[in-house]
Design a protein that fits this description.
two-stranded antiparallel ribbon, 2 strands, elongated
Length: 90
């Protein structure tokens, strides 16, 4: 087996439904009521926890924005957070 690869299977039912195996749900952090994303690429499908996918998309969109705003260190970010918190208290 390839590193970081886990293989399991599920049966497709009459309405196209499947049960995601417990081991897969645990690996992906999926629980009852969660939503998932299906990403189809070159004939393969990736199943992703939609909350994780949304966070990845947000991170990708925000990449480089701190530097663009002049926030080049952890202390600069913390100073901005303190400033915003102080403004919201007033």
């Amino acid at each position: 087996m390839i590193a970081n690869t886990f293989i399991d299977n599920a049966k497709v039912m009459s309405k196209g439904q499947i049960t995601i195996p417990k081991d897969i749900r645990e690996i992906l952090g999926i629980s009852c009521g969660d939503r998932v994303i299906f990403v189809v690429e070159n004939g393969s499908v990736r199943l992703i926890n939609s909350a994780v996918y949304a966070m990845q998309m947000l991170q990708a969109q925000m990449a480089g924005e701190a530097e663009n705003a002049g926030l080049t260190s952890d202390s600069a970010v913390m100073d901005l957070v303190k400033e915003v918190c102080a403004e919201s208290e007033n």
